[in-house]
Amino acid sequence: MRKDTVARYLERHAEPLAHTVPQLIRRGRYVICIPACDEGIRFEETLNSIAALNGAEDAVLVCVINGAEDAAESIHQQNAALLSWARDLLGTGDDVISVTEWSGFQVVLVDCASPGR
After folding, report:
1. In the 3-class helix/strand/coil scheme, how is the chain assigned residue by residue?
2. 35, 66 contact by CB (below 8 A)
3. Which residue, of 9, 38, 76, 100, has the fewest CB within 10 Å?
4. Backbone phi, psi, residue 19, to 5°
5. How do residues 86-98 score in pLDDT, each as one tens digit?
6. pLDDT tens-digit profile of 95-117?
7. How far apart are CA 47 and CA 98, in angstroms?
């Protein structure tokens, strides 16, 4: 796919957040995207299973924690707990988008669940 095709797609269809993606994200041979909402704290199991894959060092995991303003309070609490736990595990801050390495592959954590996001 040509670079200008991707740029046009992002310009026309992407959420505004997509334009803030840090340049720190490296190109990966494999990309895994996990949209998460109201999930249990099993994220470490997922990370470990990805780390065990052949070629994991060429992978980029994008985990988007999603929330809706009108969701039940229990969902907001579960999302907040997952974000806090994942940030502690990965050693990231509370930025909207955090990029880090974990067990040899890159992890991009996107917070679309906190208030105002």
Report:
1. CCHHHHHHHHHHHCCHHHHHCCCCCCCCCEEEEEEECCCCCCHHHHHHHHHCCCCHHHEEEEEEEECCCCCCHHHHHHHHHHHHHHHHHHCCCCCCEEEEEECCEEEEEEEECCCCC
2. yes
3. 9
4. -80, -5
5. 999 889 988 888 8
6. 888 889 989 999 999 999 998 88
7. 16
